[in-house]
Write a structure and sequence with these properties.
The protein is about 25% helix and about 30% strand. The chain has an eight-stranded mixed beta sheet, with helices on both faces. α1 crosses α3.
């Protein structure tokens, strides 16, 4: 079946170029994953907060290496884009991902975490902002982000990175303690938006718990 409009992001745009690295300041960079990150990745997923919000653990270094290999393949497959947040010595500080890519519509979903020692330094908002600017430059039009309503720290990351709150999806994600309501955010490539209709529309409230 023929499509009547062109893809927003032309297939091959990502796979045909090297995955970029971004400087985040303070000697920290956002870069592709390497096998050397496996011990740090396994340690990160032993953190209770990362386990709570991302609902997984890594049982061995081999498993960590396999996950890194899958993440690296995602670039060439144009299915998910994964970066490590690391300092100048190579220590793993966090992760930033664009997943669930829809090239036709130009949509991707943002995911992130930071290790305990890196929290409170503004690294996650800087990483999200850097990748957002890059994604819009290569043709994506809409980036989406969601987090549990019980995770206000993630909400602050979204707001600092310029993602508007859109609403709440009730009972949308399973966690260890049951299904959580999820706050949704989005950021568009277009700088301007039409004004709200005064009779119908009201701004969506920012996250609060």
């Amino acid at each position: 079946m023929a499509e009547l409009v062109a893809h927003t992001v032309v297939p091959g745009t990502l796979a045909g170029t090297p995955q970029p690295t971004f400087a985040l300041g303070d000697g920290v960079e956002l870069r592709p994953w390497t096998d050397r990150d496996a011990p740090g990745l396994r340690a990160a997923y032993a953190d209770p907060a990362i386990q709570r919000w991302h609902v997984r653990e890594i049982g061995s270094l081999d498993e960590a290496r396999e996950l890194i290999a899958a993440w690296r393949r995602g670039w060439g497959q144009e299915q998910r884009l994964e970066w490590a947040i690391a300092d100048g010595a190579g220590a793993l500080l966090g992760r930033l991902a664009l997943k669930e890519l829809v090239l036709f519509d130009g949509i991707a979903v943002v995911a992130y975490w930071t290790v305990p020692a890196a929290r409170g330094r503004g690294l996650a908002p800087r990483a999200v902002t850097a990748v957002s600017h890059w994604a819009f430059a290569v043709g994506f039009r809409r980036l989406e982000l969601e987090h549990s309503t019980l995770n206000p720290a993630s909400c602050r990351v979204a707001e600092k990175a310029g993602f508007d709150a859109e609403g709440t999806r009730l009972g949308a994600a399973l966690h260890a303690d049951g299904h959580h309501d999820m706050h949704t955010h989005a950021r568009l490539a277009d700088a301007g938006r039409p004004p709200l209709h005064p009779a119908r529309d009201t701004p969506t409230k920012a996250c609060s718990v």
